[in-house]
């Protein structure tokens, strides 16, 4: 049974493996993710699943506070978090210009 499953995995299309190799290059890079309620999370990219949910590690949450506060942003350390794709509004990765263009082509090929 396990041999049959292994044989089926051998026929993975090149487009899928190309996408995986591009995402692997992002592992452990700093990523800033914004969500619908206005908060931002800054952490190290740990993984993404087929649905687009992102896991960040060593994450810090930033949220805006009242203007009467001395600092316009409040922060707290969270550690390992999962950000659902349905909540995400923006996603930025520390990377070179060439890598950013590569990610743009990855975005166009991913199914929605």
**What string, H for helix and E for strand, traces the elements in order?**
HHEEEEEH
Radius of gyration: 17 Å
Major β-sheet profile:
5 strands, antiparallel
Overall spatial form: elongated
What is the end-to-end distance?
Answer: 32 Å
Note the quaternary state here: single chain
Q: Beta-strand percentage?
A: 35-45%
Protein name: Sm domain-containing protein
Domain Sm: 23-84
InterPro entries: LSM_dom_sf (IPR010920), LSMD1_Sm (IPR034110), Sm_dom_euk/arc (IPR001163), snRNP_SmB/NAA38-like (IPR050914)
Pfam families: LSM
Short description:
The protein has 112 residues and is α+β, with helices and mostly antiparallel strands. The chain is built from three helices and five strands, in the order H-H-E-E-E-E-E-H.
What key attributes describe this structure?
112 residues, Sm domain-containing protein, 5-stranded antiparallel beta sheet, LSMD1_Sm, snRNP_SmB/NAA38-like, disordered N terminus, 5 strands, 38% strand, SH3 type barrels, elongated, alpha+beta, Sm_dom_euk/arc
Structure description:
With 112 residues, the chain is of the alpha+beta class. The protein has a single domain (24-109), classed as SH3 type barrels, CATH 2.30.30. The protein contains three helices and five strands, in the order H-H-E-E-E-E-E-H. It has helices spanning 2-10, 14-24, 97-109; strands at residues 30-35, 40-48, 54-64, 73-83, 88-93. Strands 4-3-2-1-5 form a five-stranded antiparallel sheet, with no helix packed on it. A hairpin with an 8-residue loop joins strand 3 and strand 4. The chain is elongated, with a radius of gyration of 17 Å. The two termini are 32 Å apart.
